[in-house]
Structure formats: structure tokens, C-alpha cells
Amino acid sequence: MRPTSSSAAGRARLPFHCAAAEGRARRCCCTATRSRPVADIVAGKDRFLADAGDRGLDVELIARPAARSLVEAAQLLGIAPADIVKSLVVKHKDGTFLFALIPGDRQISWPKLRALIGVNKLSMPAADVAFEATGYQRGTITPLGSTTAWPVYADAAITGRRISMGAGEHGYSAFVDSDALIKALDATVADISDPE
Question: pLDDT, tens digit, for every residue of 27-75?
Fold first, then answer.
């Protein structure tokens, strides 16, 4: 799945809403521009696209049916499970949060992440707490467009590839270059996962 090509001049003139974001197309590839703050945008995929546009990040939004498993989602998207990146919300003992970007075929390594951050306790919050922290429901979470800009930690295994990730809304996935995403998010890259 390749993004449609567009010139830098064409991207600069793109309106905020793209056809896929408005439900008129299955795919779009855009660097969006917008005139209102991310916090004022209600729809998850619109917040996602707005933040990506602000960061100059090219993303491809794909409408897709619901999947019952990671393997099924990968099959629907025509990619390997390792190319689906899970955006996990992690809670510090002090009540703050962070995002951990983990390949789909791996799991978060709590000892590695705790050692990297220098804390003794981290946990996965309940779904309602993750929603309050990000503005996104489980299964749609992404650092892009989050209602709060928490620090991002990316597992080293996601680098150097084109990945799929949540796009802020059920029924959509986004494709993005992982290295461009890491740079745009100013993410810390480290070995923070283990095989499942």
C-alpha cells in the first residue's frame, strides 16, 4: 500500500479535511493544514490528521472493517503483524502517562521500560483512564492528536520501516514511515519489548 504522490506545493494547499477523513474515499495520503487547535477537533481521525499536518508528517489513512485479532488486522491491511504498531498508554505512579510504541508481534517489556525511565512502577491504565489521558478509545490510540502530549518511547524494532498504527477512530488505520514518525514525535528509541 503506497501513498499517492503529491508535490510539496500541492500539500501546502491541501485543506484540512481529506476525502477519506470525510468518508468519501477509502484512502488518502495527506499532509493536512488546519485553522483550529487540535483540542477543538472532536473526531479522532480528524485530530490525528490535524496533528500529523502540523508536524509535516505524511500519513495514509485507510478505512477498514473491524478485525477480531492482530493477525486478522494484518491480513486485512496486507502486511505482517510486526508492521502494525501498538500505541500503548502507560501510567506512572505519579499519575502522569507516556506512550510506548510496540510492534504488533511483540509485547512491552516492563523491566526494560522501567529501567529506561528510572522508575520502579508503571502500569496499563483502565480503558476509561486511557481515554481521559488521550481522548482516544482503546484500539484507536495514537500519540498524534492526543489531547495531552505525553512523552513517547518507541521500540527500536519499529525503525526503518513503513508501519500501520491507530488513526484515532475505529474503522481506520494509518500508514506512516516509522523514522519520520519518531522524528516528528521526538520519541526516545530503545529496546523496550520482548517476543510474545
Answer: 444 433 333 454 555 789 999 999 999 999 999 999 999 999 999 999 9
Instruction: Tell which residue, 53, 82, 92, 107, has the closest CA to residue 165.
Output: 82
d(CA 190, CA 195): 15
Does the reported pTM lie above 0.90? no
Indicate the SS3 state at residue 155: strand
The per-residue DSSP string of 49-97 comes to HHHHHHTT--EEEEE----SSHHHHHHHHTS-GGGBEEEEEEEETTS-E
Alpha helices in the chain (DSSP H): 8-13, 44-54, 70-77, 110-117, 127-134, 178-185
Domains of the chain from N-terminus onward: 62-195 (3.90.960.10)
